[in-house]
Every structure is written in C-alpha cells, then in structure tokens.
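Protocol step 4 of 5: obtain the predicted structure for the target chain.
Materials: sequence only (see below). No template structures provided, no constraints applied. The aim of this step is simply to have a reference model before the mutagenesis design in step 5. Sequence pasted as it appears in the construct record:
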Amino acid sequence: MTDSSRPPVCVLGLGLIGGSVLRAVVREGRTAFGYNRSEDGAAAARADGFDADTDLEAVLRRAADEGALIVVSTPATTLDDLLPTVARLAPDCLLTDVVSVKEPVAQAVQRCHPGARYVGGHPMAGTSQSGWAATDPDLFVDAMWMVTTQDDTDPAAWLTVATLARDCGAQVVPAANDAHDRAVAAISHLPHLTAAATAAVGAGESGLALRLAAGSFRDGTRVAGTAPALQRAMLEANRIALLNALSETIDRLVAARDELRDAGTVATLVDDGHRARLAYEEMASTPAPAIADVEPGDDGWAAQMRRQAHLGHTWQR
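Step 4 output (structure tokens):
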C-alpha cells in the first residue's frame, strides 16, 4: 500500500468498537486520535496513553487540518446530530463508519452530508460489554469487515477504508449496502431477538430453571447481556430486513410447534438447523479464498468483487 492509503485516523466514539479501532491502528504505527462524548471514556483512553478529547469541534478541525480518515463509531440514532457537524468542520475528509447497518447510514450521510466522500464499513466483531474498558486491539484479528462496494464507489477511497480494516487485522468482505443489511439481519440481529426470547422464557420459568441452566442457555443468551439501548439502536435501524428474517423464523417455529403437536416430532426444524450449523462450521474452519484477478479501479471492479464475496472470498491484501 502507498502512504496515501494510510492517512491519520480520527475515531468518533470510543466505545467497544471505536476504541478498539483506535487501539489497533495505533499499535500498527498509524497516527490516530479520537472523540468521546463522555469525559469518563475520554479520560480512560488518555490514561491508557491515547489521544482522546470531548471537544468534537476541536477534534474535527484537527481532522480537517491533517486530512484524516474519519471513522464514525456512534449509534445510528446519533447520526442526524453528528453528521452536520462533520459536514461543517471537516467536509473534505474521507468518511467511513463501523455501524452495524449500512443503508440507513448511507441515507443519513446523503441527507446530512451530501458532499461527503463516504465508504461504509462494518466489522463483524464484538462482545456483550461496552465502553472503553471493554476495548481490545485484537478484537478484529481474523474477523470479517464489510466494506461498502457499490458500482459508484471511488476506488481510491475504498482502498483507504479497506486498508484500515486490514491494519486492524481483519479480512475485507466487499458487499453492497442492501445485501449486507439482509445478511446481518439473519446472522447478527435476529440472534439478539432469539437470545432475548430464550432468556426471558428461561428466567420466567423458575429459580430452578436458572440454577440448572448450563452451556446451551449461557451460549444461546450471551448477546442478550448487551446494553438494551445499544441493542435497540442496532436492531431498530435495520427494521425492514430484520422484519423479514423474524417472519421466516416465526414461520419455522410455528411449523415446528404444529409438527410437535400433530406428529410428536420436531424433526424438520432440528434437521434443517443441524445441516445449517455443519455448513457454518465447515466454512468457519476453512481459510477464506482471496479475491483474485481484480483491483480497485479496474473496469467493473466493484461488481466483480461483490460476486467473489458472495462465493465466500475475502480481500486480503
């Protein structure tokens, strides 16, 4: 990569994801600084030796002066307030984000900062913890990091954002915004709702049930431990795709209920789920093939990258 693909990094929001980005890129040797709304979070970052401030305007002016890549790491519900300030103070900075939905963020950027050079992103990593204390420079190592790859995406901007992901240790998955949102509704957002349902049913049964609860309950409800406000911000921002995934889930559960009532078996759902889990384990245990024979800026590069990503390949350079 050339130096131009590694500008200074300005992270807005130093919670689990944004703070981990700051830690990871600083460890990689890049210049990076950040903003956090709460003084406690900024002070904790400074105490660990990182450059953090609560003065958003000062941080954005610095980003403009240094030509930084701005990484938005605040909930989707904050964007309509945050983005106009970015547009006013750092209009020429390349903008990316690590928000878990992409179409709503792209729409917010178009609405609030229509002149932005914007390439979305979403690292598929996290824990049920939040705040600076939960941050980890290794959080993204070997994780998948979606980088928006639309037909009109600027290849130089895409390369800069993809390089950020690679510097954090992740593999890059090129995808269109709508395809990303449908995928994460099924494999990330739906599990939050099923975890909540499992936790609520288990806890509502009796103290005996919770005392007996072991691995399947613990693992199946882990994400229900995430702060409710953070869950709602993520899930409600992707409500259309999540509604579709939730509807399919309800249909499958109703069919399983009816099969159990009428035939005394739940074979269909259990067998389908078992096959799907084995397919996931096989893919997860096999190194992803690298996207090949296409470079950002080649004719049709975005479509070709998306096609290979849908086959399970990742951009690894």
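Step 4 remarks: The chain has two domains: 9-175+287-310, 181-284. The radius of gyration is 21 Å.
Proceed to step 5.
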